[in-house]
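Page 42, continued from yesterday. The earlier attempt failed because a stray header line got pasted into the input along with the sequence. Redoing it now with the clean sequence only.
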Amino acid sequence: MDDEQMNVLGALRYIWRRSLGSISLAIVWVCVALFLAVMAFDILGVVPRQDMVSVLGLSYAGLFQRKFVFEFVTAPLLHANLTHLLFNMLSLWMLGPDVENRLGRTRYILFSGFCAISGMVGFLAFNWHTGHVVIGYSGVIFGILVAQAMFFPNNVVAIFAFFPLKMKYAVLLLGAVELYLTVSPEGAGVAHSAHLFGAVAAFAFLRITQWWTIRKARTAVGQLPARPPKWRTIRKRADIPKEL
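This time it went through. Structure tokens are written below.
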């Protein structure tokens, strides 16, 4: 086994150890279990996959006509195919734990829920009165990418598996692509609007959370500023990013 293979295996072992006990890894297991359950029910003829997707996935008809509000919870956890599942779950497994550690479990859960719901609302906004159904964790994945860019801007990620780019630039590039695809007709079964809205929701959540944390800290010592200070000026708390 050469040095490159050893480095890859070492990196995978590190990612695995870091993810143990995390909310991110728990969500991975839930999504995998749901995918296998839907596939098994379809193969055994218990419930056709299409029927499962129409009930568990989010759609205009399901939400407004059948009043299936639970679709906001089930839709992000359901995936269209093995490629869709692998991409989202590998991204969540590799990138989620670092964001989770920065935010803490409670805020990370709120962050993920906010990104997921915002992504689905964005999808509905561009697919009003249609029969389209949205499923998948991609809205949260794009939110996690934004968080990675804000917390760890100089980390390098391989765009499209080939092009190494710093996270802060990679997110801008992916955001521009998603914006273009959102205003164009959606095709290939990909809900680009959900990706874009998930990313925007992540940025808003992190900015508001940062401002509120600083406001509470300053209020506690009677030093409430006239306007929210910049993120990078506060360095005392470990859970506040040090730079953008």
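Notes: The mean pLDDT is 80.
Reminder to self: strip header lines before submitting.
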